[in-house]
Amino acid sequence: MPEFIEVTTDELLDALLSYAPVRPVHIEGPPGSGKTECAKLFFENIGMPFEEFDGGTTAIEDIVGLPIPDHVNQVIRYYPPVRLKRDKPFGIILDDMPNAKLDVLRAFYKIMQFKKTDSFEMPEGSIVISTGNRTEDNAYVEALPAPLVNRMMILRLADDVDGWLRHARERNFHPLIIDFIESRPKNIRSPSNPHGRPFTSKRSLHMLSDALWQHKELNPHRVQIAAEASIGLAHAVEFQGFYRTKADRLTVERLLKGDIRWPGSPADRQELFFLMNSFRFYLIKHLPTTVDAVNGSTRELAHKAKALLAALAEISGEMAQHVIIQIDGEAVPDWFVVEVARDLPRIAASRK
Fold it and tell me: What CATH code would you report for 6-158?
């Protein structure tokens, strides 16, 4: 079955600029992926005022208004909420729409399709955008009704790492967070947790950044508390190792130059694990995929890498093996693995 196409933040904003003025648009994505922020940014970019309604907390009166008796004509009239009574075009963001109660969803339906309810009609040129989590995100949402789905364009927001990094720098995120995601792009998200535990998302990374900025000085214990309270546990543990390698200046570049060695103490396993992963990603990035493309500098890198693998194997054979196996579709080149298998016994023997 074909994959649902996902769009980056820039692609989403471009699509909204084209589609939203003529058709209602629904932005879909996992929790904390930046759906609502993108909708707000769109309205800010075009200079249009907007109102936001949250599907989970909005009452029907917030949309339709209150019934007021008209004793003269003996009818009931609905007076629209003041925030929706406008003379000029404006925008509405129906946030978390799939989580709305049935009566509110019906009102949202009218706004999406006709840009009106029983009590008000949006001026010509107004724009409606909705957002929502997916049913697979453990977000306790209902699938949207088919007639509603068939009346709006649906855009799924991707985990756009480059766009997020740009946004994080513009918003002055803590440099540790930026460096962490820059070195581990896949750590921008972890699956949502059905047991109510923290998971990693763009939103939770922002929370972790705010928490880190609150400390005048960081230490390993403070970093542990902040990380495990904000992001997925596996990423939190990795982030603690990342912090320690930063604090102790344990970098792959220094490792390759011989300025430092692998941390060998049992107390340093977090640092060792993160440095090992950094070493693995460094090799994946810098070693050519085929042996024919190897030049002088990459041959020197391969030679140093094999010596470092032998040293790592003396501390932890499991971690040394971790460097050369395929994980999530990524691995060091096959030619390098062949050379490791051929040369490592000789290198290990020479170290004794």
Answer: 3.40.50.300
